[in-house]
Design a protein that fits this description.
Trna Endonuclease, Chain: A, domain 1, six-stranded mixed sheet
C-alpha cells in the first residue's frame, strides 16, 4: 500500500459526523511551527469527550525504523492529543517496538482498520491559538482536496459509462452489419446476381421492384399458375383466330 491509500482508509475510519480529520498538521503556523503530524482527528461528540487523536503514517519498514530513532519529534503535536497512533500496513511495526505513548493501527489492502495495540490515554495540554490556526489552515486544504477527489472520481465514472455505451453501440452496429451482409449473400446466392459489383445495384433493384409490382409473387399458385393461365389464354386466342378468321383479319 502507498501513503495515499492509507490516508484514504484513515479518512473512511475517522469520518463525519463523529470525526473531523486533517492531514499534514503542524504545531503552529508561519515561523511558529516546528513539527508536523501526518494526520489529526477530533471527535465531534461531547459524549466522547471531544478527544483529539494524532497519527503518523508509515508504509515501509525502513521509514518506520527511521521514525523509531527519534520518536520524540512527534512531541510538538502529540502534546495536544489525547491519543497517539502509528498507522501502517500489516507487518511494518512490531508490538515491542512501540514507544510507550503510541498505539498501533494496521490497514489491510482492502482498507479495513484493525487496532493492534490500543494507544494509552495521554494528558494533553490545552489547545493553543497557534495549533488551532494550523488545524484551520489544513481544514481549507481538506475542502479543496475532497472536491478534487470527488471531481476526479466522477470523471472516472463518466468515462467508464461513456466507454460502456460506445462499446455497446459498436457491438449493436456490428450485429446489424453481420445480419445485412448475410442477407446480401443469401440474395446473391439464390438469385445468381451480384449487387455488390459496380453498376449492378440499380439494375437489380429495378428488376426486383418490377416483379413485386406485377403481383406475381402474391398470385395463387405463383408463377407456375400464371404460366398455365398464359398458355391457356394463348391457346384460346389461336383457336378463336382459326374459328373466326374474318373477324381477326379485320382487326
Amino acid at each position: 500500500m502507498n501513503t495515499a491509500e492509507v490516508k484514504a482508509a484513515l479518512r473512511a475510519r475517522f469520518c463525519a459526523p463523529e470525526w473531523a480529520i486533517f492531514f499534514e498538521v503542524a504545531d503552529g503556523t508561519g515561523g511558529n511551527h516546528n513539527r508536523w503530524a501526518d494526520a489529526v482527528a477530533m471527535n465531534m461528540w461531547p459524549s466522547r469527550g471531544l478527544a483529539i487523536h494524532g497519527f503518523e503514517i508509515k508504509v515501509s519498514r525502513s521509514d518506520w525504523l527511521r521514525e523509531l530513532k527519534k520518536p520524540e519529534k512527534s512531541g510538538p503535536v502529540q502534546q495536544y492529543c489525547d491519543r497517539w497512533w502509528i498507522v501502517t500496513p500489516k507487518g511494518i511495526v512490531k508490538r515491542e517496538e512501540l514507544p510507550p505513548t503510541w498505539g498501533l493501527y494496521e490497514v489491510s489492502e482492502a482498507g479495513a482498520f484493525r487496532q493492534v495495540v490500543e494507544a494509552p490515554k495521554l494528558e494533553p495540554i490545552p489547545v493553543t491559538r497557534d495549533f488551532m490556526a494550523a488545524i484551520l489552515r489544513r481544514a481549507s486544504g481538506i475542502d479543496a482536496e475532497a472536491m478534487a477527489a470527488a471531481v476526479s472520481k466522477e470523471v472516472v465514472r463518466q468515462r467508464a459509462g461513456d466507454h460502456a455505451r460506445v462499446t455497446a453501440e459498436i457491438e449493436r452496429l456490428s450485429r446489424e452489419e453481420d445480419s445485412l451482409r448475410k442477407k446480401v449473400s443469401d440474395f446473391e446466392r439464390i438469385s445468381g446476381l451480384s449487387i455488390t459489383g459496380w453498376g449492378q445495384s440499380e439494375a437489380v433493384a429495378n428488376a426486383v421492384k418490377f416483379v413485386l409490382e406485377t403481383g406475381i409473387m402474391k398470385s395463387y399458385g405463383g408463377i407456375d399458375a400464371l404460366a398455365t393461365r398464359a398458355e391457356t389464354f394463348a391457346r384460346d386466342c389461336r383457336d378463336a383466330a382459326i374459328k373466326f378468321p374474318s373477324e381477326f383479319a379485320k382487326s
